[in-house]
Design a protein that fits this description.
Archaeosine Trna-guanine Transglycosylase, Chain: A, domain 4; seven-stranded mixed sheet; Transcription Regulator spoIIAA; 20 strands
Length: 391
């Protein structure tokens, strides 16, 4: 059977020659055949020479490339990529860490599997497809993970209903079915609900940055904004913070944050869960906190929203900087893929200038080693973070 082909316009093949794994619709001169959403297609240049193979999809990104080296991108090819991702995590020690049993097992383009994210929660594997092509492979992937992980895996969960352009239902594909799972991160117990949690259930990418906060929080008053289920708050309490406040607009998130705090530290710990709009809450605090954590949801969903989103980051960081005492620390992040590291740093420069505060960069705060980034796909480095100090 002859596959459909995407024919790249003359002079528009430069990104593919640089092995960038996305084919944009504007680069395609014509489509030979009638590919459906999720089909494997070949990508060829204007002379018909094969360049890549990948999953077809509608939208601006019309193909996510699986290989620049072989057109045989199904079956055994996918299995070998999954095994390679597992070997990498084993080599990095993630399966041997007794204090942490939650980490990313497949990081999309970073593991050569664009459109696929798999997170490991102490035996539960949550798979999330960002392309129909990858979702079609879930039965095969489940079997590969079962064979490759053995006793390390207890269940597989599909959490793709919010990430695909088609109707799907989140639920277990195999194994032990639970409403929630308790995992360990740096020795802290955290309840994860795969049905209700954001992303795949928890924000795994901040693990190392939460550990850093734990080393800084001793004797400090800490404000965790957009606190969700309290990951940064738990780290601050473990580090000996004298007061920790978690602010989130979601009542359900704050209830779970409070529950996680009580599970780890009891009911007498100095923690408050506050249901409030973060922007409004920041206007009320006036030098009350020594450390503020800003980890908002993505303000920029696409490049069309970039300028408006940057205004949002500037405004919220300006408020935080205005309300920190001299010597105070700000851990601030953007998880917007469309925001570059330079965009984010420039935005913080403007926020500091508008706040009339002298600020220095203490540390760059990336995502952890279980989120590898392909050197050909800089967009994979989506999490930008800085630790700032007000002088």
């Amino acid at each position: 059977m002859i596959r459909p082909r995407l024919v790249i316009g003359r002079g528009k093949e430069k990104a593919l020659l640089r092995r960038h794994p996305w084919v944009f619709s504007g680069a395609v001169a014509r489509t030979d055949g009638h590919p459906a959403e999720g089909d494997v297609v070949d990508v060829v240049d204007a002379e018909g020479r094969w360049m890549a193979a990948g999953h077809y999809q509608s939208g601006t990104i019309i193909c996510k490339v699986l290989s620049f080296d072989t057109p045989n991108v199904e079956g055994e090819y996918i299995e070998e990529l999954v095994k390679s991702a597992i070997v990498y995590r084993r080599r990095m020690g993630f399966f041997d860490n007794k204090a942490t049993n939650v980490f990313r097992l497949v990081h999309a383009e970073g593991d050569g599997l664009p459109g696929l994210v798999c997170d490991y929660y102490g035996g539960l594997l949550v798979m999330q497809a960002h392309s129909v092509g990858m979702h079609r492979l879930f039965n095969q992937l489940t079997e590969v993970f079962r064979r490759s992980l053995g006793n390390d895996i207890k269940a597989v969960f599909d959490k793709s209903s919010a990430t695909l352009p088609m109707a799907t239902v989140d639920g277990y594909l195999w194994g032990e079915e639970r409403g929630s799972w308790t995992v360990l991160e740096n020795g802290i117990a955290i309840e994860v609900n795969p049905f209700e949690g954001q992303k795949t259930g928890f924000f795994i990418d901040q693990r190392d940055n939460r550990a850093l906060l734990s080393t800084l929080a001793g004797g400090c008053r800490v404000l965790n904004c957009f606190g969700y289920t309290g990951g940064f708050s738990l780290a601050a309490l473990k580090g000996g913070a004298t007061q920790v406040d978690t602010v989130d607009i979601s009542k359900k998130a704050i209830a779970l944050a409070n529950s996680n705090v009580e599970t780890n530290f009891g009911s007498d710990v100095n923690h408050r869960g506050i249901v409030a709009d973060v922007m409004q809450y920041l206007d009320t605090i006036d030098n009350h906190y020594d450390i503020i954590v800003l980890d908002p949801p993505a303000f920029v969903k696409s490049h069309h929203q970039l300028q408006q989103g940057l205004k949002g980051y500037r405004s919220i960081n300006q408020r935080a900087l205005q309300r920190l005492p001299v010597g105070g620390l700000l851990m601030t992040f953007s998880c917007s893929q469309a925001v570059s590291a330079d965009d984010f740093r420039t935005t913080l420069f403007t926020a500091a200038a508008n706040a009339h505060r002298n600020v220095r960069i203490v540390k760059v705060l990336p995502h952890a080693a279980d989120h590898p980034v392909s050197i050909f796909h800089p967009e994979g480095e989506y999490l930008k973070g800085l630790l700032l100090q007000v002088e």
